[in-house]
């Protein structure tokens, strides 16, 4: 299966595409979608949407694994991340991807085996699991690859918490 992992944001969106077959991983592509802080938020959202469309069209994933949103103390940041997350999910759904959400705890558990693992432990294991020469940068990219690995380890069609909006069209 081909999985697109996304670490949502509005300044930096980390993404990583992997193939998972017979308990083996193959890295297809990873990187970051960035927007300029001085740009209007609406233009930033359009840029995120357009850039993810390009990634999806180029890599043809079947699944999107995206981090669940959690609120921090800065409400404006949380709202902007939620808006970016919305356009990311819309792009995936418009391309027929099945969307799955994972908490940071679930990702750490799936990658490291311990839900309270440190960020650098997750990054080092992603490097090893995917056979990369170095830890992907920025951190959002490594997080996105960890989300994709989490989905590979967690996916069960009968039991997963799938958001399948294709039937609503």
From TrEMBL:
From the UniProt record, list the reaction(s) this protein catalyses.
Endonucleolytic cleavage at a junction such as a reciprocal single-stranded crossover between two homologous DNA duplexes (Holliday junction)
Domain of life of the organism encoding this protein: Bacteria
Binding-site positions, Mg(2+) 1: 7, 140
Example GO CC term: the record gives: cytoplasm
Question: Pfam families per the record?
Answer: RuvC (PF02075)
Query: Which parts of the sequence bind Mg(2+) 2?
Result: 67
Q: Which PROSITE patterns match?
A: RUVC
Name any cofactors this protein relies on: Mg(2+)
Q: What family does this chain come from, according to its entry?
A: Belongs to the RuvC family.
Subunit structure, briefly?
Homodimer which binds Holliday junction (HJ) DNA. The HJ becomes 2-fold symmetrical on binding to RuvC with unstacked arms; it has a different conformation from HJ DNA in complex with RuvA. In the full resolvosome a probable DNA-RuvA(4)-RuvB(12)-RuvC(2) complex forms which resolves the HJ.
The identity of this protein, by name, is Crossover junction endodeoxyribonuclease RuvC
